[in-house]
Write a structure and sequence with these properties.
Elements: H1 2-26, H2 29-55, H3 84-100, H4 106-121
Length: 132
């Protein structure tokens, strides 16, 4: 993770320089704002990866002499049968459709998004999956 953190920090530095150069050269606010927002996102990801790399053991990607097989194994736990992403996808689609059709459509999308988020957060605190 240390390498990924450094990569994102260098990317954020590049984006900051490009945002300043683009803003001074073009005087166009939309592209300049987008580049500054991209800088903000890159620095957040880089800081998170760098902070996390200090707290966890070094991975195979941090070892220059590691083989590809050294990084094999379980990556984490992923829910095999969750219905919550479907609720979030429908709610998000309705929310974005509300921008084009009318803001009244948000009244229908908000409950779906809230149900999906609530269900996803507490999926393994109730029901048959309580012990996982």
């Amino acid at each position: 993770m240390k390498i990924q953190g450094k990569l994102f920090m260098w990317l954020s530095l590049f984006l900051l320089i490009m945002a300043i150069v683009y803003g001074l050269w073009s005087k166009e606010p939309a592209g300049t704002t987008a580049l500054f927002l991209a800088f903000g996102l890159a620095i957040m990801v880089g800081f998170y990866l760098g902070f996390t790399a200090r707290r966890v053991d070094a991975g195979a990607q941090d070892n220059k002499n590691a083989d590809v097989a050294d990084d094999a194994g379980e990556l984490g736990f992923f829910s095999p049968h969750s219905w919550q992403p479907l609720s979030l996808a429908i709610g998000g689609a309705l929310a974005f459709l509300a921008i084009a059709v009318g803001w009244w459509l948000l009244y229908f999308s908000l409950p779906l998004v809230l149900i999906g988020v609530y269900g996803w957060v507490f999926e393994y605190y109730r029901g048959e999956n309580r012990t996982q």
